[in-house]
## 1
Amino acid sequence: MINTISDIKKKLDVHKVRNDFPILSRSINGKPLVYLDNAATTQKPQTVIDSLNHYYTFDNANIHRGLYFLSELATDQYENARLKVKEFINAISASEIIFVRGATEAINLVASSFCRAKIFCNGDEVIITHMEHHANIVPWQLMGDRKQINLKVIPINDSGEIDLNNFANAITEKTKLVSVVHISNTLGTINPVKKIIEIAHSKNVPVLIDGAQAIPHMKVDVQELNADFYVFSGHKVFGPTGIGVLYGKAEYLEMMPPYQGGGSMIRTVDFEKTTYDDIPGKFEAGTPNIAGGIGLGAAIDYINQFDRLELSLYEEELLKYATNELQKIDGLKIIGTAKEKASVISFVIDGIHPYDIGTIIDTDGIAIRTGHHCTQPIMKRYNVLATARASFSFYNTKDEIDKLIHGLLKVKKMFS
């Protein structure tokens, strides 16, 4: 029986976990791979890889249309994956789970369809924060070009946190939606989204949460949060690329018009009038990423075998260790120092471009991300062109962090 946090931390057998991910055993430039770019995409366990191979080898058929064995089998697997997602985030109904290509398409779907549902008028507002990914900025700008919707941005402080008082005061009678990131992919900031939702709902404003970075790091309960929309990508939660999820409360999804037209999303079609399917089918035009959906279901099965608190505490330990070790390097500055952070660290080193950092340590098999991370407004906020970013998952180790530190010291020596 586990009684203490220390016991939970000790329970996770990281080396056994690493054996589940075949790519972690490969070498780069003759050195063991040190993969520290999990905020961009996570690696895939063998069970997910096997699920894709099995589908294409034995079960490949289109879904929802055929009355033959393979089609019905594939349909059952795909819809079972939807049920797994529903349970994973604790939605009320599987019909509230819309399969999309990723968080980006999910936000675009809401921006397009929600704004077309006779909700928005010229001059209405969408509130976002200064730490948003481009995927939660550009779709609203595109809709603003069509309907003259104003985008209101909540500032962040030097630590990378938003002020809830500023947020509350920003909501007006013109505010029709709040769209905010759960965890920043650049700063690692964990936003108080439940409180944000409570404030917005007190003023009758619905809220979309971009959960792409949160889903792999914490347990998410959409009913407990009371989110109106919640989006995430499969590839960031150990599943395949090209599959993602839009969760939406049924009351909103039912009032929203289709995002795309084509097969599967219809009930009847003639040249005079078309009627549409119920949710979720109304938003899933055409042949979907069947294998991706099944693979996402396999990824959820894999994660469900662990205690999520156990994983979160281990990643928190990695974050603290990496932060302490990085701060020992002269001239290194961490960008984003919020009190509540996930295991993401962005940093710069005086006199060295992040691209040089990433290129040089790659020769030792160390994979980090360098650039603006699809958050150019954050770069401008901190007056930097780019950052280097190390992001950790529960299959990473302190030994890998030590290799990162060694690589960064090597870079500094080269530029000294």
## 2
Amino acid sequence: MKKIEAIIRKTKFDEVKEALLAADIEWFSYTDVRGVGKSRKERIYRGVIYNTDIIERIMLTIVVRSQNADRTVDAILKSAQTGEVGDGRIFVSEVTESYRIRTGERGDISLYLPDEDKLK
């Protein structure tokens, strides 16, 4: 199993969400995050000076079976990329175990619902 954490632009969230759903990734969590980037410029927009030291982004956390990791990363890369500085980062790490609290299932099966569960 793999844990994929992606930090993306807020403006790309809907595109990334749709790309993940199209790649059959049906569950993920996300949070608003802030970070400090390498670029430290002031930008002026409509006469107001904005400091870009602190960057607001969204962090997605997705745990998938290992066989779905590349498909998940590709969906994020293609949908989140603008080609500009600040597009974000993706981190992939190993997950040694997973449990579904409701049923006590563990391992890969705890990450998705078998077809009969989807019908209930």
## 3
Amino acid sequence: METDSETMASVIRRLRRAQGQIGGVIKMIEEGRDCADVVTQLAAASRALDRAGFKIIASGLQQCALDGNGTGDADRERLERLFLSLA
């Protein structure tokens, strides 16, 4: 599954954001911050990771559609498994 550089740059930005949020969560826990604040930051990091994954999968689906070669069952099943792993 090939992806374009613009898509990958966007994915990397999302992953860096998630990395910062996770670092923030660790610091919050070490400082004994309120549980609700910690969970809010964890949820934000989780969403950032999910969006990065969905963007990669969407790019793969788009690439398959653009190829026009009628993706095989194996490719379709692989993309389906990847998608479901994030669901």
## 4
Amino acid sequence: MNRTQSIITKYFKNSDLNVGEYIALGGFEALKSVFKNGKDYVISELKESGLRGRGGAGYPTWKKWDIGRNRAADEKYIICNADEGEPGTFKDRELLEKVPYQIIEGMIISGYVFGAKLGFIYIREEYAHLQIKFNEAIKMVKEHGFLGQNILDTGFDFTIKVFSGAGAYVCGENSSLVESMEGRAGRPRLKPPRIGEKGYLGKPTLVNNVETLAAVPAILSYGGKEYGRFGTEKSKGTKLISLCGNVKNPGTYEVPFGITLREIIYDIGGGIEEDKELKFLQLGGASGALMPKQLIDTKYDYEDLAGKGFQVGSGAIVVADETNSIIDFLKTVQDFFFHESCGKCTPCREGKRQLSKILTRISEGNATVDDLKNVEKIAKTMKYASFCGLGQTAPSAILSAIKYFSSELCNTVEGICPYY
């Protein structure tokens, strides 16, 4: 099995393509095949491919699209979620930078299948230069007849607009994203109804991650069945990962599911900087759990990771070596979440405030045994009682540290450690 693949990333080596060059290399051929073969063809190919949502939820894309296309409404919308704000995650930025036409092609296909005439790409404010680039790409694609009225004489009308987020991490959650688009504070909605039923302006809305939409034309061109041969029986295909931290070769890589984390770190990543000892990984972004080095032979797929209490999430893999302090790492993560809380629910809002305070005391050597007890109590309360996924996953790093690195936590206080 090759360590890396180039299916979704096949145009990365030609990252300065203009739209004419993209077309010459096979761009928009997938869209043409969709117009020729129909919506059932898309659903069938995506089902064969095993593609799941690449934003973190991992829901089967074909099922999401199939349910949505059969929902009757006078208006529908699609949204490409490019509000990438998870620390350690940058694979969507790479896609926006290198293959904007591929993302646009995926958006057009999703709009056709879903029955929408208008699509938005929600790009976070920090990616302002990419907003400019994407607007230019939309303009060029429209001039070549793939956007606008009566696309390729099919009778299908579709337009794409860029929407700028304000840089709030919580707006990566679909309902918070839609709330902000409607002019309100980015805070999660009560569900049901779900976004697919009642989303933007109260209409059915299909929201997909950048990587998911970029994968669609690549899969249709490659063949759903062929793409599904990569990976494992239940985790099919490939995944873009953001590899960073104390690793020699950080970057964005497309890997087949089923590869081990050891292969990712040492074969693809080149090993640990200065050949130091690996201490832990954080998987799936800042909201992910910490994996100790003794588990790095775990396969990188949805099932194997979940079986050990970890997640694929956004595809981030942060590598930490022996010089990294667990306490300092946890404090950095919780300070981020404290800053990014939307404030809607008490467990998340107050929980993160208290965790940040306690971790500060621990890092300064002023903590007590009761502080350690309260860390676990607050973290579990947040996990089970928070309103949305942000608050529910924010304590993941802490809870995994208690499980795998309890001795380092306990060495910060005097007395009997509550974690043993």
